[in-house]
Amino acid sequence: MARVIAVANQKGGVGKTTTSINLAASLAAADVPTLLIDCDPQSNSSSGVGVPRDPTRLSTYHLLMGEVSAAELLQPTALDNLWVIPATKNLIGANIELVGVESREFRLRNAISSVRERFDYIVLDCPPALDLLTLNALVAADSVLIPMQAEYFALEGVSELLDTIERVRENFNQGLVVEGVVLTMFDDRTNLAQSVTDELKKYFGELLFDTTIPRNVRLAEAPSHGKPALLYDPKSRGAECYIRLAKEVLDRQGSNSGAPPMEVASDQANNEPLSTSSEV
Questions:
Q1: Local confidence band at 195 (pLDDT 50, 70, 90 cut-offs)
Q2: What pLDDT does 70 receive?
Q3: What is the per-residue pLDDT for 124?
Q4: N or C: which end of the chain has fewer CB within 10 A?
Q5: Contact status, residue 146 vs residue 207, Cβ threshold 8 Å
Q6: Is-above-0.70 flag for pTM?
């Protein structure tokens, strides 16, 4: 049965889609059958693995509306072990159309249940908002991977996201845990990055991935060619870092790592809230 990982952060521009694409691709490159599901109306994950934009295509929208099965939507990619269920801009309508639907929070979870045995991992690329699409992803997921930049504005949204995860856990998905936090667009030459990293280590402990994702031109160029970084330039720093991240994810599942959100919602040593001041 596949482990379902939602890649989520309500703050935009933190590398969420880049992480979804390249984590899924790196898992697939390790001979692990992986499914990438694009839950974002911007459909960047879809185009980032070579599925061209087509508003008439059957997509995640039709999956959530119960019009097609997950198996009917599976599309192969250039990687043998990677499949994708693409999105289109029509998906934004699901936020409105599902409001009055019974068990609306469980639509994605129920829809992918029929294909979970075909994969080892299912990666959900969530939109940059805490809306009904993200809620469906969190209810469907076993864990949440949080990409974030080493900036203080990025820190401000983490507590809100953890609170949302905890509420989902209490009401809809008791098994939901935090897979981990990965720092993206990281520049270890700056004092700011180092101080934020130190704060996050105190806050998240072992849930902070050792791997950090650097700012990397080849990583930024890859989506315009419809390829994950490891296909576009396998020797680039970005590709190598996502391969290391995938290895960490695999190793963590082997050790059953991860923690409920309330266990990381306060400083593990001093029980203090995450600081966002410049005095860190």
A1: confident
A2: 98
A3: 98
A4: N
A5: no
A6: yes
